[in-house]
Amino acid sequence: MLSLTGLEDRTPKGIAGEFSRAIRSGVLAPGDRLPTVRDVAAELGVSPATVSAAWQALRRTGLVVSRGRAGTFARDDPTTWLSPRVRDLVGGSVSAGDTSLRFDLSRGTPDPALLPALGPALSRVSARASTLAYQEEPVLPRLREVLTATWPNADDTITVVDGATDGIARVLEHLVSYGDRVVLESPGFPPFFDLVESLGAEVVPVGVDAEGVLVDDLRVALDTRPVAVVLQPRAHNPTGVSLSATRAAALARVLARGAEPGPWVIEDDHSGAISTSPDVSLSTLLTGRVVHVRSFSKSHGPDLRIAALGGPAAMIDAIVQRRMLGPAWTSRMLQSILLDLLTEASSMDEVAEARRQYFGRQRDLVAALASYDVSVATPDGINLWLPVADERAALLHLAATGIRAAAGRPFVAAGSPVSPHVRVTAGLVTADHVDDVAAALAGAALAVR
């Protein structure tokens, strides 16, 4: 039984914090019913409105769910298809009817208003794309030509897969055996940690700074003889860092000096078309050991589920051959849509405008934060990695203002140094709301339990 008699902070933030700790420590188990608003108000000597505000903050962080007249319950998360890391990352879904959530900045998704219009592309796509034979080439030749024209290494063989994570998963499944080691960035993309662990491999974390992966960390990691190194060269998720040409050259030198044949390098260029950074790739520096993945989800639409995968012919051909025993190819209808979006002037202009808008939104939010004495570098892409005094307190503070951000801990590999952060999808913050959001983020950065 949770006792509140000793609670000193009886504001909505303090009450929400106390119940948050009770849920996370197991004092309140998943599915447990919280006391009624009236009972909590009576025990603490506060108004029911104060307790209701605390309940709203908890709902916005995903810790509790309202079931109408039945009451409010500690979330018994039904999303069993998501890993614990990803469940922590998204913080649960918005409760039905919860109109107090003003901005969901937790998802890491692009602004739908900045995606190119699909209607014109759909009207131009030929019906032939859906009637090609099973045995025909899995990639439309014209799409391959367009991809090759902007690919970092012109010698790569290119295929198309169902999104960046699908491509990276297929490469790792081809390379990794039980007990192997894989180098991953920390902070980094949580599903990569899950993927490596699901393959029975060990994650070897390396840190990142303003120019990309730390050279000394990689040098130490190579002593473990990993089979692969996974990097995000542009708009790193969650930090927004992009790999500099100088750092890429230094990383390539370290990798080239390692024991032969050395690990494969897998590059996840998930935000290339909306990135303002140069296209820096180790594939031009290391021969025959780099696979480059370029996604179009952030720039052209997450539900297109399409990415290009390029690298040495032996590796790409092996992946294509294995795919023929499963999905065989990525829908040629979708490939035709992507080809249209990549070549039609109006669509190209829309993507260029999205890139400009995201750059401006990041710049404006960073400037607004600086006015509150919160200093962060302007990130590339759509995410901002905000340092905070206390992660849970920061999330609760934001929830109390109607804002949801992503917890920072899921982005950090086990055993890595932990510095409290939250990830903010800054690309969704328009000029009309930048000052309001900056004020809330500044307060969250200083919030403590």
Describe the structure.
The structure is a single chain. With 449 residues, the protein is an alpha/beta fold. The chain has helices spanning 12-25, 37-44, 48-60, 84-90, 119-124, 141-149, 164-175, 190-198, 215-222, 245-257, 297-300, 313-323, 332-343, 345-370, 391-400, 434-446, and strands at residues 64-66, 72-74, 103-105, 157-161, 181-185, 202-206, 208-209, 212-213, 228-231, 264-269, 290-295, 307-311, 384-387, 403-407, 421-424. It starts with 11 loop residues before the first helix and ends with a helix.
Taking all Cα atoms into account, the compactness measure Rg is 24 Å
Alpha plus pi helix count: 16
Strand order of the largest sheet: 4-12-11-10-9-5-6
Proportion of strand residues: 5-15%
- Distance between the first and last residues' Cα: 22 Å
Overall geometry comes to globular
Q: What oligomerization state is this entry in?
A: single chain
Mean pLDDT: 89
Low-confidence stretches: 92-97
- Major beta sheet summary: 7 strands, mixed
The total beta strand count reads 15
Structural class: alpha/beta
Helix content: 25-40%
Descriptive key words:
single chain; 449 residues; alpha/beta; seven-stranded mixed beta sheet; four-stranded mixed beta sheet; 16 helices; 14% strand
Give the secondary structure arrangement, pairings included.
Blueprint: H1 12-25, H2 37-44, H3 48-60, E1 64-66, E2 72-74, H4 84-90, E3 103-105, H5 119-124, H6 141-149, E4 157-161, H7 164-175, E5 181-185, H8 190-198, E6 202-206, E7 208-209, E8 212-213, H9 215-222, E9 228-231, H10 245-257, E10 264-269, E11 290-295, H11 297-300, E12 307-311, H12 313-323, H13 332-343, H14 345-370, E13 384-387, H15 391-400, E14 403-407, E15 421-424, H16 434-446
Parallel strand pairs: 3-14, 5-6, 5-9, 9-10, 10-11
Antiparallel strand pairs: 1-2, 4-12, 7-8, 11-12, 13-15, 14-15
Helix pairs in contact: 1-3, 1-15, 2-3, 3-15, 9-10, 13-14, 14-16, 15-16
